[in-house]
Every structure is written in C-alpha cells, then in structure tokens.
Amino acid sequence: MLKQLWLRLSAHRKKHPKQSIRQMSRQTAIPKSSVHYHLHRENQRHQFPESVFWDSEAGQNFLKRLITSAIYTFGVKGGVGAGRIEEFMRKLRIQTHVGISESSIYRQMKAIELSILKYKELRELDLADQATNQLEHLEVVLGLDETWLDTMLLVCQELSSGYLFLKSQKINEIQKAGGINSRKA
Fold it and tell me: Which residue, 98, 71, 102, 77, is CA-closest to 87?
C-alpha cells in the first residue's frame, strides 16, 4: 500500500503538475531522491486506466477493504487457498499497487484467523463476567407444589418469569418415601 508520504506527494503533484523534481522536493520537504523514485514508480503503476483511482486515498481505502474482504470470504470462510486468491487479485490488475504474493495473502489469512479467535475469547470473557454479575443480583421467587395424577408429580414455578419445572417421581423414589406400592399385602 502507498504510504502517507506518497499520498502527500501525489496530492501536491495534482495541484502543481508542471513543477520540477527539485521544486516538489523543497515544497513538500521530501528528499529529491524519494520524489524521483515516486515519480518513476508512478509511471510504472499507471499501466491500466483504473490505476489513477488506486493512487488516490479513496482508492487505497477501497483496495484495503477489497483485499481483506476477499481473503476473509474466500480464504478463511470458503477454504480457498492463497494461490487461488492471488490469481483472483492479479485478474483484477491490482498487483501494481499492492503486494499480493501467495505468502503475503497466507500471512493475512493467518492474521485474520487470529483476530477472530481473539475476538471470540474476549466475547466469552465478557459473557462470563456478565453472567457472574447477573448471578449476584439474581432474584428468584419459587412456588412449589405436588399433585397426584396417576403418580405424584412435583411442580415448581418461577413466579416472576412464569417458567414451570416438572418432575415426576420414579418408582424407587416412591417406594423410599413410603408410597402405596412400597409394601405388598
């Protein structure tokens, strides 16, 4: 990506297109060799009609979004390899403005994956903290009762929310409690 220095020089050149390298160097406080290098690289980059847009600040921001989106969507979520993403980027003809080698794309994929895992970890910590804070202030109002249908059924209702919890007793629990079937006649 272009650095701020190059963007500043490009903006100055648009305002003063006829200036010499020496004059641009003095007015922008950029060394003359850097100005010369930038102008030489700019001529190399402007191979395609869209290249002028890529040199602008808006174009640079768009390229960052495009590359990150393509790597995330195709590489991280879709499982497409770095080589295939590099091929896609070359077909867009942005290789004159950004480094899109297979290794740089792979590094970006790993950085995005690490960021996702770090975000997940932070969210889990935040959710655990929220749950702890809520448990300290949790107020539960329970209403308990039992009812007999065919067998005994325990009913618990959380009165503030209306949630019902039901438990039917197993046969061995009824026998331990001294129920009807515990003694044979």
Answer: 102
Is residue 35 within 8 A of residue 72, CB to CB? The reply is no
**Orientation of helix 57-70 relative to helix 82-91, angle to 10°:** 150
Say if CB 85 and CB 45 are below 8 A apart.
no
- Tokens at 72, concatenated: 């995330």
Two structure tokens written together for 99: 């480094």
Global pTM reads 0.53
Question: Do β-strands 152-158 and 163-168 pair in parallel, antiparallel, or remain unpaired?
Answer: antiparallel
Residue 179 has pLDDT above 80, yes or no: no
Which range, 47-56, 106-115, 145-154, 158-167, has the best average confidence (pLDDT)?
106-115
**What tens digit of pLDDT does each residue of 13-31 get?**
888 888 888 888 888 888 8
Q: Partners of 148 in the beta sheet?
A: 152
